[in-house]
Design goal:
With 251 residues, this protein is α/β, with parallel strands linked by helices. Helices cover 44% and strands 15% of the residues. Strands 3-2-1-4-5-6-7 form a seven-stranded parallel β-sheet, with helices on both faces. The longest helix is centred in the middle third of the chain and has 30 residues, at 105-134. The structure holds NADP nicotinamide-adenine-dinucleotide phosphate. Keywords: Oxidoreductase.
């Protein structure tokens, strides 16, 4: 069998029972890696592992911002697959919609707990358990909503701006052993973004120069590039993956 670029590599992909996370996990597995996937609901995780192949993937169920869950997941990667090389901080939530001036502060705190502090904490755990000693790479999933104001989803946008900043901070702190990069997608067809396009996909897609919305595979290609040796001299960067949308002034 021909060698694959991630043979012998082990990755944690958070929020990977469906959507972008599952797309990233699938691409990692296709390219030879073993993956540990996480999410809250067990049934969807079981189905995802069946899809990825039980020899290639295991899951740990839990909330992304729970530090015990993070410890358990990192330990599972090392116990099951003998190490940890990559972390993909993919879990992100947006439980509020509306003007920031009226936002429920508890919802805002939760967004920051999961999207920002969660990502930092996962990086701390992966670093301490393996990456510090053995090297590796981290990719954080940001959003074009973090690159300029995002009306009605403002706190989500602020959290993604923080993810981009955290990526830069960690890239300096963890170099040269570990590279830390991010991606900023526009609308990708997943359950999370359903309200933004369902029932009017053609109309929404028409604003994109490439005339279609994203699919998880579009993001998986960029994330795995950033994890790979092809990106060996890249750190602290955020790749925009948006079908050309932001060039037109749209988000
Ligand atoms: N789709 C887009 O248009 C788009 C655009 C830009 C950025 N993004 C970012 O891409 C990432 C993935 O989004 P997606 O569109 O793929 O979403 P999705 O299809 O809804 O999948 C979300 C995944 O995360 C898990 N999850 C959600 N909340 C969680 C929590 N609190 N703790 C642990 N797991 C949790 C879900 O499983 P459970 O529900 O079972 O926990 C599921 O596996 C997010 O960071 C999002 O902000 C998405």
């Amino acid at each position: 069998m021909t060698a694959r670029r991630f043979d012998g590599k082990v990755a944690i992909v958070t929020g990977a029972s469906r959507g972008i996370g599952l797309g990233v996990a699938q691409r990692l597995v296709d390219d030879g890696a073993k993956v540990v996937i996480t999410a809250r609901k067990t049934e969807a995780l079981e189905a995802a592992v069946a899809e990825l192949g039980p020899d290639n993937a295991v899951y740990v169920a839990g909330p992304a911002d729970d530090t015990d869950h993070q410890d358990e997941t990192v330990a599972k990667a090392i116990e099951t697959f003998g190490g940890l090389d990559f972390l993909v901080n993919n879990t992100g939530i947006n439980p509020t919609y509306g003007p920031m001036i009226e936002m429920d502060l508890a919802a805002g705190r939760k967004i920051f707990d999961v999207n920002v502090l969660g990502a930092v904490s996962w990086a701390q755990k992966a670093w301490a358990a393996s990456l510090k000693e053995n090297g590796g790479a981290i990719v954080n999933i940001a959003s074009v909503a973090g690159q300029k104001p995002a009306p009605m989803i403002g706190m989500y946008g602020a959290s993604k701006a923080a993810v981009i900043h955290v990526t830069q901070e960690l890239s300096l702190e963890l170099a040269p052993a570990v590279r830390v990069n991010a991606v900023a997608p526009a609308v990708v067809k997943t359950r999370f973004a359903g309200a933004l396009y369902e029932g009017r996909e053609e109309e929404v897609a028409s604003a994109y120069p490439l005339k279609r919305l994203g699919v998880p595979e579009d993001i998986a290609g960029a994330v795995t590039f950033l994890l790979s040796q092809d990106a060996a001299w890249m750190t602290g960067q955020c790749l925009t993956i948006d079908g050309g949308l932001t060039l037109t002034g749209g988000v």
